[in-house]
Amino acid sequence: MTADFIPFVPDDADDLVAFLTGEAWPFHTGVPQEAAVRSRIAAGHYDDDDERTFWIVTGGERAGLVRLQDFSDDTPLFDLRIRAAHRGKGLGTEAVRWLVRHLFESRPEIRRIEGTTRHDNLAMRAVFLRAGFAKEAHYREGWPGLDGKVYDSVGYGILRSDWESGVVTPPDWNS
């Protein structure tokens, strides 16, 4: 699958609201309310000095969204959402590889990129590994779920040096 990554602009506010409120996001905090999304847009949470958001467009359709966060830090984070109809087709891996390349090529001060997911989000865990990330953490009962359960969360990271060499160096768990 080939995707384009198109920057979010304020004129996309209605589309972003429809995207985020239009379906369930099983490994996020549920379906956000329209007012909350509009408030976050107005406050610059999708496009400001510390965050950038990109539409993932394939076949002329906005199939997903990637939000890059914490630009003021040398270790940014990201949020990835793929519409249900487009999951399981490689789009998540393509998006994560794109964001890694985009961040490392455009921001020379960035040393590493981090991401976290619920332990039972096996698809995202596989995306991290296919994109060159190493598992770096396992947080027991670190992710409250909508169902009242508290799930484990898993942290992944990619180092600039690993990305440049194409070799994933695992953490030294015994040091």
Automatic annotation (TrEMBL):
CC terms in the record's Gene Ontology section: cytoplasm
PROSITE patterns assigned to the protein according to its UniProt record, in alphabetical order: GNAT
Start and end residues of each N-acetyltransferase domain: 3-157
CDD domains, per database record: NAT_SF
Pfam families (UniProt xref): Acetyltransf_3
Keywords: Transferase
UniProt GO MF annotations: protein N-terminal-serine acetyltransferase activity; protein-N-terminal-alanine acetyltransferase activity
InterPro entries assigned to the protein according to its UniProt record, in alphabetical order: Acyl_CoA_acyltransferase, GNAT_dom, Ribosomal_N-acetyltransferase
Coiled coil: none
Name of the molecule in the record: RimJ/RimL family protein N-acetyltransferase
Organism for this UniProt entry: Nonomuraea soli
